[in-house]
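Class, carefully examine what follows:
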Amino acid sequence: MKTSSGKGKKKEESVSTDSNGPVAEGMHGMAESSAENEKEMLEQKIKDSEYKYLQLYAEFENFRKRTAKERQELIQTAAAPVFKAILPSLDNLDRALKNMRNSGAREEDIQGIELIQQQLMRDLQERGLAEMNVDGADFNPDEHEAITQVPGDPAMKNKVIDVLEKGYTINAKILRYARVVVGS
């Protein structure tokens, strides 16, 4: 009995493998294609994640650079209110020197005031303040404020004839526009 039952089991096993063979191969093929699809989906997710990471990193770098630039500009222009408060005193110093020259003041007094003015301007220039040079330049509404127009020589048309109030910049940004007389 042992032999016959053992033989029967072998036959059943061989029959079951033979009868399930094509079905198992079909399922095996489907399993392979679904595994490939899953692998492709995972690879696509990895690519998408890498792309999103690179985008986020680039955005962060741009943000970091932009904030550093803004911080630097803020530092450079932080003194603007102080400089604006000093400008009227600089104008008065210029007027006083001009008046002293016209009234015949002693040369020693004029030179003393000029030295003070030069030292003050040098100190302010070291901190970013610069005087606009506009004498004889073409009128530029982005840098000049025309107070009046004077008819005259056609060669001086739209040129700065006289500067009533000097213009100043702080680190290449206009702090105060130059007030000028323009030829027409």
In short: The two ends are 130 Å apart (CA to CA). The domain at 79-183 is CATH 2.30.22.10 (Nucleotide Exchange Factor Grpe; Chain A, domain 2).
